[in-house]
Each structure stands twice: as C-alpha cells, then as structure tokens.
Design goal:
elongated, mainly alpha, 69 residues, 5 helices, single chain
C-alpha cells in the first residue's frame, strides 16, 4: 500500500473549523470517516465477494481437528 501523506493543517481546518468538531472528536475519526464527513466519499472501494473469497483462501480458519491435538 502506498504511504499516504496527509495535509494535517488543512484537514484540521476542515474538521475543527468547517465541521465544528471538537479536537477530541476530530482525532477520534478514521481517515475514511473524515472523508465521508467532508463529502469526499469512501476512501477505498468496498470488498467484493471475489475479494473476500481470495482472503479466505489466503488466511483460512484453523482446522478444528488440529486443535484437538
């Protein structure tokens, strides 16, 4: 994933000044939540069924029989 850089002064002006968030509220937000509040839409696309299946193949749940030892 690309290392994203944020323009914190501009984001703080938009969140605290424009949206009238308290500093604690601003810092509690995720970047995706802040983007939604600012009308920028979701920061990333949603996970598709194919993407979920690929993750499940890459990271399968532990086998219950293996845990019985």
């Amino acid at each position: 994933m690309k290392n994203a850089r944020f323009d914190w002064p501009a984001l703080m002006r938009a969140g605290i000044g424009g949206l009238k968030l308290k500093p604690a509220e601003f810092w509690a937000l995720t970047p995706a939540e802040l983007a939604l509040l600012l009308g920028a839409g979701p920061a990333q696309s949603t996970l598709s069924r194919a993407g979920l299946n690929a993750l499940l193949r890459s990271y399968p749940d532990k086998n219950a029989e293996a845990e019985d030892g």
